[in-house]
Amino acid sequence: MPMKRISWPSIWAILALALASLPSTASAQEADSAPVTILRAAHLLDVREGVLLDDVAVVIEGGEIRSVTPAGELPPGAEVIDLGDVTLLPGLIDAHTHLLHQYRRENGNDDANRILEIVEMSGADRALLGASIAREMVEAGFTTVRDLGNSGTSNDVALRDAIAQGWVIGPRMYVSTRALAPIGGQFGTIEEVALPLVEREYVQIEGPEEAREAVRRAIYDGADWIKVIVNSGPMILAPEEMEAIVDEAHRAGVRVAAHATKGDGPAMIAARAGVDTIEHGYTISDDVLKVMKDNGITLVPTDSETAEHHQARIRRAMAAGVPIAIGSDLYYKVEGQTRGEEAAQIYPRYVTAGMSNLEVVRSATLVPGQLLDPRGRIGAVEPGAWADIIAVRGNPLEDIGALERVEFVMKDGAVIVNRMSASSPSAAGGTAVD
C-alpha cells in the first residue's frame, strides 16, 4: 500500500493544534502554585515570645506557614477561614504515646493485659486499633506524637506511613518500633518457655554487641527513635550496654529515649550514656538532673497523678534548667472518653506542680517540637513551619483548661476539625479576598 504523503501545511496545522493544547507559561505556573489559605482569628498565642497577639491572620501555602500578619493586610485571591473569637496556637505535641496499645482494667493488671494483647491481637489488629486512636488524638488537637513502643513488630511504622500517605487521618508520628530491654522486657520474671512472647514486643539485650545489633535492626525496621527500657523489675541494663546503644544510634543520626523509673541508678546510667530524653524519672535526684542539664537531655514526665514527690521533681528539674516535654503515656481504655480527650486533661497537673501556664504550653508545643524536628517546622506558628494549628476557646495563658476546648484543627494545611462552622456565624470557610 503506498504511503500517504502529508503536506507541510498539514504538519504545521498539527503542530499548531498540539501547541495550542499546551498550557501557557502563566497558566502552567498557576497550576503549579499551591492554593493560599488564610486563618483569621481574634487572638494568636506566640509560644516563642510568650505573648498574645490580637486580630491576626496566618497565611498558609502548600501546607506551610508563609507569614503571620495583621488581619487587615490579607493577600488577594486567598481562601479565608474566619474563626472569630478564638485563640490560635501550634498543634499540641504528645511526647510519649502508645497509640497501638490499649488495656482494659477488667482484664487485670499490666502483665495480664500485656499477654492478652500479644496473644489475641494480630499486627493488623494493632494497626487498626492505632488508626482509631490516632484519629481520636488529632481530633483533640494533637497534630504530632512520639509513639514509644508497645506496638508489636513495626506496626507503628505501618501506621506512621499510612497517615503520611493520607490513607488514614491522624497526627504526624515519630516511632520507635520494639523497645530494647533487659531479659524479660517489661514482663518481669517469666518462665523461659514464654520468652518468645517477649520478642514480639521487646528486643532483649545481653551485652554491648547485641545492643548495637538491636539498634541497627530497629533503624532498618523504620524507627525514628530508639526506645530503651533501662530497668524493669530487678533487671537493669549495664552502663556499657547503654553506652553502646547511644553510640550506635547517634552514629546513624537517630535519637534515644530512655525509660527510667524506681531509684536513681537507671536514670544516671542513661544520663551518663548521653541519651536524648529520660522518660518518667519519678524519683530522679538533683545529681541526675545536673548530668541531664550538662548533656542537654530533656525530661519527659508522664504524670498520671499529682503526688507531691512527682510534683517536686518537676520543680527541681525547672530549677536545674532541664527542658521538659510533656507526654501522656496513656494506654488504659477509659469509658466515655477518647484517648485524645484524656490526654488533653493532663496539663493542669503541671500547673499544680509549679509550672506557669506559658511553660506548660511550651512543654506541649515548642520544646517537644525542637526535640522532634530541630529544623523548627513543628511546635510554633511562624513562617517556615508546617501549618499545624489549633484554635481553642479562651486564653491558655489565663486558663490552661482552654487546651481541652479545641474547636479547630489543621494539620499540614488541611482542615481536620472545624467545630466553629456549626456553632459560630462568624466562622467561615471559602470566603475569598478580592
From TrEMBL:
Domain of life: Bacteria
All residue ranges annotated as the Amidohydrolase-related domain in the record: 87-415
UniProt keyword annotation of Secreted present: no
Record's signal peptide: 1-28
Family matches, as InterPro entries: Amidohydro-rel, Metal-dep_hydrolase_composite, Metal_Hydrolase, Metallo-dep_Hydrolase, OTAase-like
PANTHER family recorded: ALPHA-D-RIBOSE 1-METHYLPHOSPHONATE 5-TRIPHOSPHATE DIPHOSPHATASE (PTHR43135:SF3)
Protein name, per record: Amidohydrolase family protein
Organism: Alteriqipengyuania lutimaris
